[in-house]
Amino acid sequence: MHFPPLALPCVLLASITDAVSTFSPARPPALPLAVKSPYLSTWLSAGRNGGNGGYLAGEWPTFWEGQVAGWAGLVRVDGQVYTWMGLPGSTTVNQTTYEYTSTKSIFSMHVGNMVEMNITFLSPITPNDLRRQSLVFSYLDVSVTSLDGQSHNVQVYADISAEWVSGDRSAIAQWDYGVTDNGVAYHKIHRQTPLSFSEHRDQAEWGDWYWATDSGASFTYQAGADVDVRGAFAKNGTLSNTNDANYRAISDKWPVFGLSHDLGSIISSTSVLFSIGLTQTEAIQYTGRSDTLTPVLSLWTSYFNSALEALDFFHHDYQISYIFSSGLDDQIAKDSIAAAGQDYLTITSLSVRQAFAATQLCGSPESPYLFMKEISSNGNMNTVDVIFPAHPVFLYTNPELLQLLLQPHLEIQESGHYPNSYAMHDIGAHYPNATGHPDGNDEPMPLEECGNMVIMALAYALKANNTEYLARHYTMLRQWTNYLVEDAIYPANQISTDDFAGPLANQTNLALKGIIGIEAMSVIARMTGNSNDSRSLTNYAHEYIERWTTLGIAHNATQPHMTLSYGSDDSHGLLYNLYADRELGLNLVPQSVYDMQSDFYPTIQQQFGVPLDTRHRYTKGDWELFTAAVASTSTRDMFIRLLAEWINRTPTNHALTDLYDTVTGDYPQITFVARPVMGGAFALLLLSEGL
Ligand SMILES: *[C@@H]1O[C@H](CO)[C@@H](O)[C@H](O)[C@H]1NC(C)=O
Ligand SMILES: *[C@@H]1O[C@H](CO)[C@@H](O)[C@H](O)[C@H]1NC(C)=O
Ligand SMILES: *[C@@H]1O[C@H](CO)[C@@H](O)[C@H](O)[C@H]1NC(C)=O
Ligand SMILES: *[C@@H]1O[C@H](CO)[C@@H](O)[C@H](O)[C@H]1NC(C)=O
Ligand SMILES: *[C@@H]1O[C@H](CO)[C@@H](O)[C@H](O)[C@H]1NC(C)=O
Ligand SMILES: *[C@@H]1O[C@H](CO)[C@@H](O)[C@H](O)[C@H]1NC(C)=O
Ligand SMILES: *[C@@H]1O[C@H](CO)[C@@H](O)[C@H](O)[C@H]1NC(C)=O
Ligand SMILES: *[C@@H]1O[C@H](CO)[C@@H](O)[C@H](O)[C@H]1NC(C)=O
């Protein structure tokens, strides 16, 4: 077996960029820039296959789906212009370092030995502050200082293009310029004809984009053709304070929206702040308990009277927001290192923005919802078997967020708007339309989703100390458990969450989920005073698990292990559903099964991990992390080490995929991008913390 070289050697990078940057704690496949919601999701591809290797200057940032999101940065130093972001054409500055935390991407750049720039992309995450979390905005802070002790004349410029407002480059963009009462200068850009609740290449076709900075004496702006606006800055260091109102197609003389600050003669650190964001008053359509599809407001509209008020608040909130986000960064860093070391932090800190940015807060403070997009795989809304792998990050940061993700499922099914007796797969076939499945024709994953719903309901209630929640939803949870009792021991031929791998009968790991779900329901019954249910369900669970340990084992294997499906001794798979037994503290599954699996995985490891199962060479990063969380220390560390190494070396080019080839590190036939399931990285942290 031979392994192709994956990372570009440093010499090669050096010749591309003139200088070599460090990447800390890793060089991820794509560097998160502004990553805050399904529609504000801008990355810099590290471009191992043809890109420039993770340098902010010299390559365009892209939307997660891959299309360019024109975002350019220029700096003038003593009359010479340089590019620090994007590919607008001038000489690039020299990137020296790149670092990411859970909420920030921080670049350091040198312009000769004259000045240093620190460029910080902060996508704030405030899990316990829904007002701040509800804003679909992100910061870009640029600070400049003299490197050589001499004073230098510096102007800083940044623009966005109209590419942000639609995925259709022939769509007509329209724009405006203004200044808020509190001195925030902004370009407002939108599709001339908004298409409510519509997407094009996964970009939103409705809502207003704001691109803003502080106004003031040294500030100028300009909207117009890219060459004109960037050209004016390059030539003069100022913009014309004009707003070319020739509204036109995004690709017609590419309109860009420039903001520029003349810092004058600087010697010590001086900074300018930009904010980028999307405001949609109505963000989602939802049927819920009713029969009619109704628009749901973005949650921020409950806290702010207008988009401008929200923008104003956000822009002036930088210091406080920075402190909150740094608090989260530090907590995740401390907990991750304590749980499993630096490699683990490399993974968790890259995953948290990605997981949160698949969600959006809507509704009102009295009745909030968290909607989630199944990004890249099919756009389903609040998919149960996507929430399940992602759920550890939400329980870890604020268990109420998990409750808000499950809420629409309970509303639709408890009000009788779903005909099947097992749990619904998702709340709508495509974000942002939560139309439910009144015909019952959703992707059928009955055992998977019934198990997931019961397990997550209990996990939430334990973490949030909310027994009343279990009592309120008892009937529905009990109904789903009937399905588990019928099907869990001999799962019918069906797909599991890993639907791309195809259907199979008697899946060992799927059966395990169902059996654990039964025991979880027994605990729910006990907590809510339904002791008869509790007794009979725990009897089922214990009887099933005893049979399962025999049915599921590879009897004659040289290295004992559980199978992929009953009786097929040559098969194996990641037994990631064991995680829920530990998570909920059930102690249902014998320790011998944990030990056997821990001993087995190292024997089948490949260069970048352990295959998902014997049908393919690919694996799932999220399930590896669930598996690792309940493995022996040495096996856990093997999983984590290989995944961290994969992050550094994978030839994949977009926001973290959860599906990759364990030998080449590349995408298999299927390309998954930016999916929230990577929130599963927090599985181990959740166990360390306890419910
Ligand atoms: C970048 O570094 C190279 C090599 O040291 C140097 O030749 C070049 O002038 C630098 N460019 C800038 C903009 O600092
Ligand atoms: C950039 O960050 C580094 C490390 O925090 C700091 O030492 C340096 O002074 C900063 N430079 C600027 C221009 O802010
Ligand atoms: C959502 O539904 C609306 C009609 O209400 C439709 O125009 C739009 O294309 C749908 N959006 C998506 C992403 O399917
Ligand atoms: C250059 O900037 C000055 C002010 O700094 C302004 O008066 C002049 O019109 C600008 N020239 C161009 C070509 O934009
Ligand atoms: C959990 O909730 C119960 C009932 O509301 C309360 O009595 C108890 O103090 C709570 N426990 C903790 C640890 O907060
Ligand atoms: C499942 O396994 C049992 C026991 O080995 C077997 O009797 C049954 O036929 C299997 N089911 C299917 C659908 O293959
Ligand atoms: C619980 O089971 C006992 C014994 O089988 C029975 O007498 C009792 O009525 C049951 N209670 C409920 C609430 O069903
Ligand atoms: C295991 O091996 C024994 C002895 O070779 C054989 O009798 C038995 O049928 C095998 N069991 C399975 C499940 O393959």
UniProtKB/TrEMBL annotation:
Coiled-coil stretches: none
Name of this chain's protein: Glutaminase GtaA
Residues in the signal sequence: 1-22
Residue ranges annotated for the Glutaminase A central domain, each copy included: 341-685
Domain of life, per lineage: Eukaryota
UniProt keyword list: Signal
Pfam families named among the record's database cross-references: DUF5127, GtaA_6_Hairpin
Keyword Transmembrane helix in annotation: no
Keyword Signal attributed: yes
Domain Glutaminase A N-terminal per the UniProt entry, residue ranges: 103-335
